[in-house]
# Entry
Amino acid sequence: MESKRQQKVASLLQQELSAVFQRDLPHLFPGLPPGISLVRVSPDLGVARVYLSLLLARDVAAQQTLVEDNVKVIRQALAKRVGKQLRIVPDLQFFIDDSAAYAAHMDKVFGDLHIPPAPSGDDAESGSEDSKPQRPKLFADEDE
# Structure
């Protein structure tokens, strides 16, 4: 469970990192800059785990390598933005968030399932009244 302070810092970092990617360092990312889906901060506020959403990127591995190679530049640009609000700018660790791709995959799997329709109510009513489902007997000496 994250503390309120961790949540506030994570929210601040998410906003400022997206601004850094879009405004301060657009030259580093050809095409679309990566989106930030989640930021988690350690309890001592020294490490931030940043989850990047690279849905529209053509080459995810190349984009990830590009981000990892420029961690120092990204952290410096972030420090200019949050230097007055945070005493220490946390170390940044970048991870790829593939939850949207996984959700699309699961949608496809569920869409491809063939589920036969349930038997209609007419079939169940055609039997006698005594064909109600029986309650299972839990004990041998149980009478109805």
